[in-house]
Amino acid sequence: MYLEIITPDETVFEGEVNATTLPGAYSSFQVLNNHAALISSLTSGLVLYDKKGKRTEVKISGGVVEVLNNKVVVLAESASKA
Questions:
Q1: pTM > 0.85
Q2: pLDDT number for residue 81
Q3: Which of 1, 22, 26, 60 is the most buried (most CB within 10 A)?
Q4: Contact between 17 and 3 (Cβ < 8 Å)
């Protein structure tokens, strides 16, 4: 699936990933390939994504996520590589 992590200032990451874990408003949740469509608010925390067996962390300060047709778009208030 394709993941984009975007802030008002920059695109932090975009590319194909195997899985991503997001800091949901009530608890973290994972999105895998062919996930059902959803929109969710995000709290401050870590966005984790797995790309070819390598796990990467991006710290965000809240935002929203949209999952649709194997594309995950994270619109974060701010983000930095952890």
A1: yes
A2: 83
A3: 60
A4: yes
